[in-house]
Structure formats: C-alpha cells, structure tokens
Amino acid sequence: MNVVCWACGRDRLEPFLDLGPLPLAGGFLSDASQIAQEQWFPLVVHVCNDCGLIQNILPISPEVLFKQYYFSSSTVAPLIEHFKGYADFISSSLHATTAVEFGCNDGILLEQLRARGVKATGVDYSENISAIARGKGLDVVTGVFEPETARPIRERIGPVDYVTGSNCFAHFHRPEAALEAARILLKPDGLLGLEVMYAGDLLEKLQWDTLYHEHLTVLSLGTLSVLLERNGFHVVDVHRIPMHAGSLRVLASADPNRAPHPRVAALADEERRLKLNEAATWRDFGRKVLRLIEIVGHTMADLGARKRIWAYGASGRAALWLSACRMTYVERIADASPLRAGTLLPGTHQKVVLPSEMRASPPDYVFLTAWNYFDRIRANEGWYRGTWITPLPRFEFF
To answer: Which residue range is the domain that position 392 belongs to?
Structure first.
C-alpha cells in the first residue's frame, strides 16, 4: 500500500470511490481452466487533500500486470492516426532528431519517427510486446524505464533531444525513477513529453472505467506540475488531445530558465475555475459513478433476461463495466486485436472474438464498452441493424 501521495508526498489521502473487488483489466484468460485461479483485487480510488491527485494506493506488481500483455497499439486505427500526428509534432514542431520512448508497446510511434528520419530507441516492460517491436527492426529494450536502464542506453546512443511516454506514465510505482531516467537521457536543452489521461476529461465524461488497477494516477496539469517540480522539471507547454477520450500532452524542461508557453497559465486558471484539484469535486464524482453503475446494471440485467446482448471492445473499460454490473449474460465480446481473440474476458469470462464473427448470429443489442470509438466502430459495422448501447459519456441507445 502506498500511504503517501504519488505527486506531493504528503499523507492526506481520502477514499472517494470504492468499486469493491474487481479483476485485473488486462488479465485475460487463455481458457476456462484458468478461471478457478483468477484473482480479484480491491479497487478504492483516493484523492489527495493537499494537491488533488487522483490515485490508486494499492499497486499490483508489474510482473503480474505487464510481463505478458494483451494490448497492441497498432491494432487500433485511431491510435495509428494519433501517433502519425505525434511523430509529425516531434520532428516538425520540436525539430527533434533523436528520441527515447518508454512504454513503446509494439513500436507504433517508433515506426513513424523512423519514417521521418528521427533516430529513436524504445523501452517496454512487456516481453511479448517488445518482441513484436524488435521484429519490425526497431531498437527496443525490454525492461523498466529507470536509471539502471537509461544509463546503458545513453552510453550506447548518447544524450537525446526528446524523451516521451504515451498513456504509460500512470503505470509507474516509482514515477520519480522514470523522471530520473529521463534526466539521464536528455540533452541539457532537451524536452520531456508526457501524454497522460486527463483528470478534466475524467470528470467531464464521468470516465470511471479508466480507473482500473494498472492506472495508479489520473493527472491534471496542476498535479503533474507538482510531481515534475519535485523531480527537477517544470512544465513549459501543454496541449489537450483527444486520445483515450481526453488526454494532455505536457512538455517539461529541466532548464529553470526556459519560460512556459501562455497555454500553461491558461489551463491552470481553467483548472482552478473548475475546482479540478479539490477533494470535494471528486467526492461528488464518486457519488455519481456509483449511481450510474446501479442504473446501467439494473437496466442491462432486465434487457439481458429478454434479449441477446454482445459487447464490443475488450479493453480495460470492458472488464470494469461487465464485472461491476455483473453482466454475465453478455454472450460474446468482439475485439479487433489478434492478441485477445480466443481468450476469455477477465471477471465475466465471455469469449473474445474478432468482429467478423458477430455477422454469423447478430445480437439484438451491442453494449459498446469501447464507447470512445463509437463513431468509427458503427461505421465499420454498418451492416448491423440491431441497437447500439453506450454507457458513457451518456447511457444511450442508438
């Protein structure tokens, strides 16, 4: 248990959302023989009464969460588009020619950087995913992004212009170690770029379904600034981006004389106006989430007693929704990732199948756990004549 705040280091943590025991969102089962050994862990989300950081204080071992990973970024079309744009930003706007990416997954960004002439090295904890990246001819190290990993990389390739991580900084049990690793690798005028799920979008869209065990924090500009400043960086620019239904791209420098862009002060003012980093805001959020889970659970159970229902999108969101609402009546869950096809969803154990299998016996309803990709999914499955259901950002039927 982490008894002090991941960002400010103080101990005034308050629980505001108790989701009870839930399965690991990425803990897919290879077959039914593994069900008896499946573990569920408490999921109680806290807020810091000093800095406002949203956090999970009961971390699970990375060995359990990430050694064998079932998420391959290159199977998600919107992420391919996102990382093409990010590579353009790194090469054209920042003029970086060398980079290191931690949490590089299957090399989705590294490939785009290579195509633009940026010399890039990746680091990823997952053995199976980093092997996929190396199979593409990319320079990828398997391991934790920490000083012990960073030093030999610097010795081999030298200091770099840019160090970045996308949607993985929240996984770190020791964020200070990752930030020290970045300092080791960066040139004196280099930049750290973090793409993180944004607490502002979490609040606005009631995105409780991203609060699974592997996400130890959900950051705002304010809380990330506190963490960075405790570790030798300060924010020099910030952009809101649509990735994962709402994220921040934060640029930070270790040079104390580098002035921040006016966007930084503007977003800080907006967070103060919204009271985004205040505990009372998140107490209200917690109450709304529990009520929504109750409404969705009762409505879907009544529907499931009379109609056939599938789910679509075997992401972490799916494991949380189906387990929290006890949706064992859902027949199958469609997902485009070959890594997940044929496995069983954590918790409720529906078989994960490729979307093409839904055509053989179309259900009456499809519960869209990947609601953040609804428009694209509905366009891809234009043949389907049943009813789509989205639980967020509003519980709606289409």
So the answer is: 297-397
